[in-house]
Amino acid sequence: MSSKAVAHPNIAVWIMALGIAFSMALVLTAVFNANPWEDHTYDLAPPIVAGMPAPHRDGREKMVCSSCHIVTPPAIGTGPGSGTLPIVQGTPAPHVDGREKMPCASCHTIVKKGSVAKGAKAAPLPAAVTPGMPLPEAVSVALAVAPAPAAVPLGNEAHERMVPFRYQGKVVSIAGAGARSVWGDIYIQINDGINPPIWIDLAPRWYLQAEGCVVRPGMFVKGTAFRDPTQAAAGLDYAMSVMANGEICALRDNHLNGLWANAGGMDAEER
Length: 271
Description:
It comes from Paramagnetospirillum magneticum (strain ATCC 700264 / AMB-1) (Magnetospirillum magneticum). Required for correct biomineralization of the magnetosome, may be involved in redox control of biomineralization. May function with MamY, MamZ amd Mms6. This is Magnetosome protein MamX. The protein is an alpha/beta fold and 271 residues long. Among the domains are: 75-115 and 135-142, no CATH class; 158-265, CATH 2.40.50.140. Helices cover 15% and strands 21% of the residues. The chain is built from three helices and ten strands; from the N terminus they run αββββαβββαβββ. It has a five-stranded mixed β-barrel. It is extended.
């Protein structure tokens, strides 16, 4: 009887300690809910103009600027009125390459609705336009996206002629059969703001969904891929891995064999 009486308080203490530890874990998880594997603050870092010195002096100046910042091309001209179109006050920015986060007045003349900017030089009227005809104050131009290169059969010895490289950048466009069907391959066009945009063949859409690496336009992705040196950036590259949504997904092995071949896609429609 005495041994049982001594054991009960010890069990109660351990149960109470485990309950306190579990409660503290819940509180800390709710307070510090930042996932260290999530994508870094790529969308929060201010854009950097290509050719400008790095704004950091704590060691980050040795890193690639496009890892955290959107690199924009240098502006032509020295200020407002140097060939840029005016912007009507209150309208959304006409850019989608990172410049939409910059103050519009840095490059454009801000025009109030229904008025003409003071001191702005009137553009010459086209020959077919008569005086008195209202002219548009701002123009939104849609940028054309180059179509994705056609995929070619790789063969068993494709890895011997292709070279590996690292890629990173923002997803500009998505193409391939995976854009229409869960069973098709997904091609992404990425732009790092410095080099010409490239097309990369990732994997079937169901495999990306199963691995948690679904990509969308505007996302920052990076990884490793194989490229045919005879085609350079004009051809279709083949990804070995991709990091998206904070997840790192292996897509192909060193012989360019898709890892989804042994994964199976029986329940892909349910994911």
